[in-house]
Amino acid sequence: MSTIDNRTMGDAGVEQHSLARSIILHLLPGVLILVFFLITAPLVERMRAPSMLAFLLAITFVLIPFQLGYLLYEGRKRNGNLSLQGIVLYREPMRVWQYVALGLPCLIWLFVIPFVVFPPIDNYLIEKFFSWLPDRIFFMAQFTENLDQYSLSSMLLVGILQLVVGAVPGPLVEELYYRGYLLPRISRLGKWAPLINTVLFSLYHFTSLWQNPSRIIAFLPMVYAVWWKKNVYLGIIVHCALIVFNSLGILALFFTLV
Questions:
Q1: How far apart are CA 158 and CA 56, in angstroms?
Q2: Integer Cα distance of 19 and 193 in angstroms
Q3: Which of 5, 28, 167, 177 allows an S-S link to 247, with CB 3.0 to 4.6 Å?
C-alpha cells in the first residue's frame, strides 16, 4: 500500500492522510502557537507578568480554537452539522480495570520521566543549542526562581487560566485532535503510527524544542496504549490527570507569594 495516497484505508476502513498532510496537520498548530507566543510574551513581560501567561493565552486563543475548530469543520463537512461523529475515532469500550491497569502505569511514567530523564537531557540541549534564547521568556526554571518579581494580580491570572483552561480543556482538545483524529488516519503504518504521532506531537511544541527527547520518551507508552486499545478516552484521562497535578503544583508555588 502507498504511504502517501490519502485514499488508502487503514483501521476499519478509516480514510488515511498522506504523510505530507499528516505532518502539516500535526505541526501547523505549533507554528501558530509559537507566533502568538513570540508576539505576546514580551508584552506580558512589560506588564510584570510571567511569560507563562502568554503560553496560557496561546492555549485559549490558538490551540483550542484551531484544533477543536478544525475537528468541528471536518465534522460539518462529513455530517452536515457541528458533530465529531466519524471524525474523532478510537472509541472502543474498555472496562474500568483496564483504564486503571493501563492508565496508572502511563501516568506514573509521565511523572517519573520529568524528574529522572528531563533535567540532564534538557540542560545539555539548552546549554549546547538553546542558550541564546531569552531565559525569562522560554525557561520554566526562571519563572519558578523569580516569582517575587511578578505582580500578584498577574500571578493570580496565571493560576486561574491554568486551572480553567490549561488543566483540562487544553489537554482534552489535544488528545481529541492528535490521538482521536490524526493517529487513526496514519494507522496503515501499523506499529510505526504511534511512534510517528508521538514524535510529531512532541515537535509541535515549538516553544520547548529542547524537551523533545524527554517528551517523546514520556508520552510514547501512553500513545501506544491508546493505539493498542483504540481508546482515545485513555489518553484523555492520563493527559488531563498529568496536567491537573502539575497545575496544583504551580498553584502551590503561588501560595509562597501570598
A1: 7
A2: 11
A3: 167
Evaluate if pTM is beyond 0.85. Answer: yes
pLDDT digits (tens, 9 = 90+) for 40-52: 999 998 888 888 8
Question: CA 125, CA 120: separation in Å to the nearest integer?
Answer: 9
- Phi/psi for 182 (5° steps) reads -75, -40
For a pLDDT cut of 70, what percent of the chain falls above it?
90
Look at residues 132, 125, 108, 143 and name the one whose alpha carbon lies nearest to residue 214: 125
As a whole number of angstroms, the distance between CA 231 and CA 93 comes to 7
Report the DSSP beta bridge partners of residue 49: none
With b for 16 or more beta-carbon neighbours within 10 A and e for fewer, the 6-39 pattern comes to eeeebbeebebbbbeebeebbeebbebbbebbee
Handedness of CA 232, 88, 212, 119 (dihedral sign): negative
Give whole-number Cα distances, 101 to 6, 108, 170, 230, in Å. Answer: 35, 12, 25, 15
